[in-house]
Write a structure and sequence with these properties.
By secondary structure, the protein is α/β, with parallel strands linked by helices. It contains 12 helices and 14 strands. The protein folds into 3 domains: about 100 residues, Orthogonal Bundle (Arc Repressor Mutant, subunit A); about 130 residues, Response regulator (Rossmann fold, 3-Layer(aba) Sandwich); about 140 residues, Rossmann fold (3-Layer(aba) Sandwich).
Length: about 400
């Protein structure tokens, strides 16, 4: 894997490019280190290291008491030379093209891309708001795109953000058992990238997600505390999605710790594309069959996603099962914008903390910093509802 390109190296290559193209004329005086620091929005140490490298390669030379100048023997592209006179004044005064190009470059570098699979009031909307807020505090703009759960659309949006010149991308990867090659390409090229809500096992890319194992484990234990001894699981097909895999692991870890029996799972087909018509009727049918077969055996149910709750409620009504009485139920996330507030006992993902950590990570990567811990887990918060 290629080495990470540090900030000083980026500044060095930028100035070198302007010298070779002739945007900065041979013999011209460079801006002061302080001025370059302000132009590139980096530290004085970064500018000093970049200039030292340029001086070592003889692109520039320093005159004590006078400043830093572009070497006169640099070969430049003739059609790009702004001014060939060796006594040309400082580029701060004369080479406005250099400053304008720098300004445009810095403007592009202040954009962070965000690609989400979906967003809703139970999960996603608050996270977007807080990400934009945190990015704005740091002087960045957030460009938000959606994949709608479609892998090809995800690639399209990643490529679109790259053409905008974003300096980093935060991605909620699409559901699936295979990694997106566009994401892998960014990782291989050391492009600043952070995953949100999911991780890529075995791939060195930082991720920020909920501590799902612990969250579902707590739901199982809560049901047990409420008197449940036969607890079932309703989940969508995990298909390699780490968040769902971990929620399932948390369920069985809780069952094992409490010494409870394991029961048949209710597995729903995953809704791969959020632009397609909702498959809720299919989910209702599957859950109805599950409840009809298991209602005399189960006294508790854990749902790994809030998206299946409405299907569970409809299926329960059609099978004469009273949620909260015949079977206690809980889930991950809930609908906070409902007029009556939330109903289901649930673990709420901490979207604000996830957003803050994701922006913090992407900014660190943009700055060329090494990330010691690649996967950051955020604890979910417990809320008791009417269903337990």
């Amino acid at each position: 894997m290629p080495k990470k390109k540090f900030l000083y190296r980026q500044v060095y290559e930028s100035i070198k490019k302007y010298i070779i193209e002739g945007t900065i004329s041979p013999g011209s005086k460079l801006p002061t280190e302080e001025e370059l620091t302000n132009e590139y929005k980096v530290s004085a140490i970064t500018i000093k290291k970049a200039l030292e490298l340029l001086a070592t390669e003889e692109y520039i030379y320093r005159v004590p008491g006078r400043g830093t100048f572009v070497s006169s023997n640099i070969k430049v592209s003739n059609n790009l030379i702004k001014n060939k006179q060796s006594d040309a004044p400082s580029i701060i005064d004369s080479n406005n093209g250099f400053k304008e190009e720098l300004s445009a470059q810095n403007h592009k570098k202040k954009i962070i891309g965000l690609v989400l699979e979906h967003a809703s009031s139970p999960f996603g909307l608050d996270m977007m708001f807080y990400m934009d807020q945190e990015a704005d505090k740091a002087g960045y703009k957030l460009c938000i795109r959606f994949s709608y759960g479609d892998r090809e659309k995800e690639v399209e949006e990643i490529n679109f953000l790259c053409t905008l010149g974003v300096c980093g991308i935060i991605i909620m990867p699409c559901h699936g058992s295979h990694y997106n090659k566009a994401i892998l390409k960014l990782v291989i090229e050391n492009f600043p990238i952070v995953l949100i809500d999911k991780k890529m096992s075995g791939i060195p890319v930082p991720s920020v997600r909920t501590a799902s194992i612990d969250a579902v484990n707590k739901l199982v234990k809560h049901l047990h505390e409420r008197g449940c001894k036969s607890i079932g699981l309703i989940t969508t097909d995990v298909g390699g999605t780490t968040s769902l895999i971990e929620r399932r692991q948390g369920f069985y870890a809780g069952i094992k710790e409490l010494g409870l029996d394991e029961f048949e799972e209710c597995i729903l087909p995953h809704h791969l594309n959020y632009l397609d018509s909702c498959p809720e009727s299919e989910h209702v049918k599957i859950i109805k069959n599950y409840l009809s077969k298991m209602k005399d055996r189960l006294d508790g149910i854990v749902c790994t996603e809030f998206g299946v709750v409405s299907a569970l409620v409809q299926a329960a009504n059609e099978t004469d099962v009273k949620i909260g009485e015949d079977i206690k139920a809980c889930c991950i996330d809930e609908e906070y914008l409902a007029p009556t507030g939330f109903t289901f006992t649930h673990m709420k993902q901490d979207e604000k903390e996830m957003a803050k950590q994701a922006i913090k990570l992407i900014l660190s990567l943009i700055a060329g910093e090494q990330i010691a811990n690649e996967n950051f887990e955020i604890q979910a918060k417990f809320f008791k509802g009417k269903t337990t």
